Every structure is written in structure tokens, then in C-alpha cells.
What does this fold into?
Amino acid sequence: MITTRDKILSAVMKPTRYTGGELNSVIKNPTDVDVRFGFCFADTYEIAMSHLGLKILYHTLNNREDTYCERVFAPWTDMEEEMKKHGMKLFALETGDEITHFDMLGFTLQYELSYSNIVNMLMLADIPVRAKDRDESYPIVCGGGPCAYNAEPVADIFDFFMLGEGEDSIHEVVEEYVKWKKSGKKNKRDYLEAIAEIEGIYVPSFYDVEYNDDNTVKSVTPNNPHAKPKVRKRIMKDFNATYAPETIIVPFGEVVHDRVMLEVMRGCLRGCRFCQAGYIYRPLRERKPERLLGIAENLLACSGYDEISLSSLSTSDFSGLRDLTDGLLKITEEKKIGLSLPSLRIDNFSLELMEKVQKVRKTGITFAPEAGTQRLRDVINKNINEEDIINSTNMLFRGGWTNVKLYFMIGLPTETMDDVCGIADLAQKVLEVYFAIPKEERAKQINITVSTSSFVPKPFTAFQWAKQDTRDMLIEKQNTLKSAIKSKRIRYNWHDNKTSYLEGVFARGDRRLSEVIIKAVENGCKFDGWGEHFKFDVWMQTFDELGIDPNFYTARERSYEEVLPWDHIDIGVTKNFLMRENEKAKQSVTTPNCRQKCAGCGVKSFGTGVCYE
It folds into this structure.
């Protein structure tokens, strides 16, 4: 018998996104558990199934006898259309059950432009979007992930947030939920008050926000005795002992990162002033190579994958890298399994290492100088110099590598057009390194890709007070760089400035943006991270409709005295420390030299209007 669901799946482009039933997915009887938990990822199956956090929390929750964790992803537009046509609500993959009557829904907040999808998913489930409108008959809606450190733009939507690492806190909030459920679920506030006592749990409704006449935040004050004045993030001190799944779901189709991922460490030794991850994941903690090797063998055995990737913010800084790669090679060479090392530092990798880990297959290499001049690299505390870049690329070219990607940001604080054109200069120097090698010692062709994203100031970084470049500034810089790159062997890719602008609004936004997000979804916005669906004009119309100026969040420098929307959150790095780092960045600034051969005239230092030409 053909069901309604069968009819729907036969009408969509990729039905395996919605079927479930993959190898190693968990099947339980929902009537045998106390808690049905929906792990929600506000993007497509292919993106969600590549996320390491999902793999960790899915399996650790399903290891509990009293809990059934199922996956809930954003349906693509064709599926959403079919669901609405047939009156189907948003459902979970494992059972196909509608999520309206689940106990808890946990969203991971990985990217600001996924906020519209969160709202849309709740609407598709027929669950009230605003937390205040959900009584005890609806699921508790919680969130976590990097964007939760400033969750104010979606604070009115969520019941609570888990700040920091959730491997322990997720169990504690579930255990409190079981107690509350068994007591009769009389009042949602009782449950929220209980979990507000847990370190790392932030209940936004327990805080009142007042604003000054100039629209800045005046104060964030607890309105409930269970709410802490400062909510401190959760840290797993013994990372080696932290839960790591030794089985993973194997998707039916291809996903973005279709491989075994080994998380070797959390945190970062470096102190790049622009990098939010580098601050919020402190301190640095590592797993031991012998434990990682055991995890790798189990994951390969249960999945059949032919590639392993080492996951961290700076893989080449991992102290056990040599022992780990030597051990992995004994596994990978025999079985023809590829080994990839993303997040390599250009100043501390070796050709020996690259040759070891790429014996099975040779891939391209990506380095991130971030800025085109040493002056600007000093400002952002990148701690690499041009010699590091030249020496490393020379080693690669002599070793037979032909595909090199160089990643930069434009719009960094204090950036001038001199710095922008420095990106083209640096890429040209890398190309010249290749041609300086005798023909018989190098590969026959070379491919260099320069990629730039637009800098977005983030909370809990040294640049959290900085203003963001306007779209006009970014366009001028992109065009200038494009003109400055002369060689056809250097390809230039750049990020859309419109999405960067909206990301900047929500990155440092406050609670007044919750209504903007809800209204924008009602106006048709969703999948904002996907270019073909991004409706920038609709977003701007929505801001205007609600009387909110998005430039307030992007185009102004904050003072140190201003109360920031996230000041009641404690990540373990003090505001005074970030201030000192910001001042050090300012001290690194030197006046750029006049450029006689810059691509285009009118070279300006944005913010000062001074032309250095």
C-alpha cells in the first residue's frame, strides 16, 4: 500500500534525505523511554550529517536507556512544498513521527544565517515560535553551539541555551527533565529554574534587558533568584576522557564531509585576534594518540569509509601528531584509506608530514595567511611572516603539489588598499616560487586559488568593538584585488558581501532582532546561507517595516564603556584581556607606504578617508 509519505518522497529531488534507516542509526521503541529528544540542525541533510557535534550528542544520548534521540533537519524547498500540500508536519528521521509532541528539541547554532531556518522549522512543526507562547504541552526548545554565546537575536525563541561543551550538561538537563515529567509537568518555569542552577545553562526569560535612548544596552539583569548574574560556559577539563562515539551513521548518499572525523584536540595555541573559535574553545586540551587510534579503528570498521580527517582548530599544533600519523599509516596504507589534515599552520608543517599522510592520495593544500601584508598580519596577531609562506610553498612545489589555495579576509580593522593589493603581491610571489624551481624538479602545471571572505567582527574577540566595512567598501576592495591579480594562473574567489552584512547584524545583535527574524520568515526568508534562496531585499524591507536600523549593529565602533548584549556571559576570557588585545592591535598599526603600481587610483584608508596614493 502506497502511503502519503511514499507519494511525497517520490515527488522530491533527494528522497534519501528524509527516509532514515541508514547503517548504524539507532532504532528504539518510543514507548519504552521517558524522553524523546530531537537533535535539530537548521540546514539540509548533507550539511547536518557532516557535523561532528551531531555525531557526539546523538550517540551519547542514545546510550541512555531512558532517552531516544532522533534527527530533525530542515527540508529542502521541494520537500517543504510537498509537506504543506499534503498537510504533513515536520518529522524526525528515525521514526518518521511528527516532532510536535517530542519532549525536547535541541538546535545547534552554527551560523547566524541559519536563524531563519530555525523559525521556519518550528512553523513547519506547528510549534509556537516564541518561547512565551509554548506551554507545557509543547516541547522544550533549547540551543547550543558557537552562536549561542551571543544568542540574544534568538533569545525570545528559545527556552534555554547550553553554553560551552555539552557532553555532560546535556545529560544533566535530560535528568532534570525526567524528574519534572514524572512530577506531572505542572509548570515549565519549575523545570527552567532547576536547570538554571546547572553550570553553562542560560535561560533568557530569566533576564530583563533595558536600553538607553541611543539604542545601546543599558543593563541585563536577572529577574529570577535562580538566574546567575554571569552565566559561565561549561568546560570538559579532561578531554582525553570525554565521550567520543565509536560508531557513526553512514549516509545513503554523499554528504559534505563523507569520512571518519577524529577530534584530536579542542582549543588553540594561537591568539589570532579575529578568531572567535580561538577564544571560546579555550583552554587547549588534547586526546592521547593511543586513544585516537582505537577510536579510528572502530569507526573504520563500522562505517566502511575510505578517508580519515583529523579535526581541530590547528592540527599541526597537536603534540601527538607524529605518533598518531605513524599509527594511522599502519591502518590506512594497507586498506588504501586516505588521511587528510585540515587546519594546518603554514609556519610549522613539514614536507615529511605531508608525504606521510598523503601516501594513498595527494590532495590540494590550503593555507590561511589571512592578510596580504606583514603590517596587517601583525595587527591580527597571525604570527606568520612572508618567509614562512614562501618556504612552505617552495617545499610543496618541490614535493610535487600543484594545487594551492590561499585564504584571506578583507575588511579587517585598520585595513587599507595597500593591504588589499598586498594579497595580489603575495599570490604572485608564490607563483614565482614555482617558476624558480627547475622544470625537471616541479610538476607540469600549477593552480593557485586566492579566496577572500569579508571580515565580520564577532563577540568575545579582540575586535568585538570594531565597526564592520560597509558593502560599498567591500565591493571596492574586491574589485581592486581582482584588478591587481594579473596572472591567469591565479584564480580569485570572493564571498558575497550581502550575506556578510546580515551575518554581521546578527553576530553582535540584541533581543530586538528576534521579531525581525520571525517577520522575515513570514515574509518568505529561509535558507539564507544558500545564494539561490537568499532574499536580501526582503530582509532590508523587514528591518524597515519594524523600524530597526541594521547599520546600528555593523557600521559603528563601540566604546569600551558600552554594555554589550553578551556581557552577562562568561567564556573564561575576561573583557579586560580582550581590551588589552585590541589595544595591542592598534599599536601594531604603521602608516602604509605609497603604492606607485597599485591597480586603480584613489587608494584610501577606510575610516580616515586619507588617500595614500
